[in-house]
Structure formats: C-alpha cells, structure tokens
Design a protein that fits this description.
- By secondary structure, the protein is mostly beta strands.
- The protein has a single domain, classed as Porin (Beta Barrel).
- About 10% of the residues lie in helices and about 60% in strands.
- An eight-stranded antiparallel beta barrel has the order 1-2-3-4-5-7-8-9.
- The radius of gyration is 18 Å and the shape is elongated.
- This is PorT family protein.
- Keywords: Signal.
Length: about 190
C-alpha cells in the first residue's frame, strides 16, 4: 500500500506538471528535527541534523498564488545527550501540497498539508568506541502534519526557503504518548 501511494503521488505530480502554466524544480537542504509534544520534556532530546532532497511542481504561473506539490526523501529523528548519545533515525518520503502567496518582490509565504511515508526506522547508541544500531517496527508507517515557511526567488530560477514541519500524528505504534516529528528545514531549489 505504501509503494502504491508513493507511486500515485509521483504520477500525479508528473501528470499535473504537463499543464501549460506549470514548472518543475528540484530542491534539497538540511533538516533539524526533534521529537515534540506534551509527553516530551525539553531536556530529553536535542535537534538531530539530517537532509532532504526531491522534486516539486509549481502551478498557476505568475499569479499571486501558486500550488506546489512535491515528493522529497527526508531524514528526521532526534538525539539524546545521555551517556550513550542515543539517537532515532527516521527516513521518510514527504509528500507536501503547498499554497504559495507572493508577498513582495521575490518573497513568498507558504503553507499546506504533508503526508510522510516511513521507509526505515532505527535507533543507535554509542558504547565505548562502538555504535550499536537496530531497526525497529515501533514507528508508524505514515505521518501527517502541516508545513509552513518563507521563501525567496533568486535570479535565474534559483530559490531559497526556510520551513517548519509540524507533525500532528503520534510517531509510535501501540502507544498513548503524544510524541511527534517536528523540525526546521533550510532549502536551496532550482525551477526549470
């Protein structure tokens, strides 16, 4: 089912990109994610650096509002500064659908929903000079949330943006704990 949804998302993006008033682009950058929610103490975890990369399409041309679906590979997770320097590494395929609003010369604000599909989840820790790593199936296969941020269009098709992913689906299966994926992304993109 997960592969079907992913293929459907990519197919929709490509088919919709064939529209006369559309453009394609690539985007990638750094992630800084952490666990958030009522059941997470501020002292438990710190941001973990990762990355994201993928493609997007932009519809409705030069108007004040554009629609931008995308598909991105994204590494999220968290880090704990305990004695083991333990960390969760969660690999997702993010599928956002953003609305971009032009707010000035080159600037835009954006927001929209995002569904993420888990591709791999593992936990790691350091014991002496060795790293212990194990994959886990305790993480839910889908995650849903909101994305919002600020972008700027540079000359020659380049763009930069900063965004925040606000996870709204608890991460762990079979758990009543309110723990969510939350984090910042900084990106550089190019629209063809």
């Amino acid at each position: 089912m997960k592969k079907f949804l992913l293929l459907f998302s990519v197919g929709t993006l490509i088919a919709a990109g064939a529209s006369a008033q559309s453009a394609f682009g690539i985007r990638g950058g750094a992630n800084f994610f952490n666990f958030g929610g009522e059941d997470v103490s501020e002292n438990d975890y710190t941001n973990r650096a990762g990355f994201h990369a993928g493609i997007y399409a932009s519809f409705m041309g030069e108007g004040p509002v554009t629609i931008e679906p995308g598909v991105f590979y994204s590494i999220k997770g968290t880090q704990n500064d305990d004695g083991l320097d333990s960390r969760a590494i969660l690999d997702y395929v993010d599928v956002p659908i953003l609305l971009r609003f032009r707010v000035g010369e080159g600037f835009n604000l954006f927001a929209g929903p995002q569904v993420s599909f888990l591709t791999k989840s593992k936990f790691e820790g350091d014991i002496g000079d060795s790293t212990v790593s194990f994959e886990t199936d305790a993480v839910k296969e889908t995650d849903a949330g909101l994305v919002f941020g600020l972008g700027y269009n540079l000359p020659r098709g380049f763009n930069i943006q900063g965004s925040y992913d606000y996870g709204m689906t608890p991460i762990f299966k079979d758990s009543d704990s309110d723990v969510y994926n939350r984090g910042f992304k900084v990106s550089l993109g190019y629209t063809f």
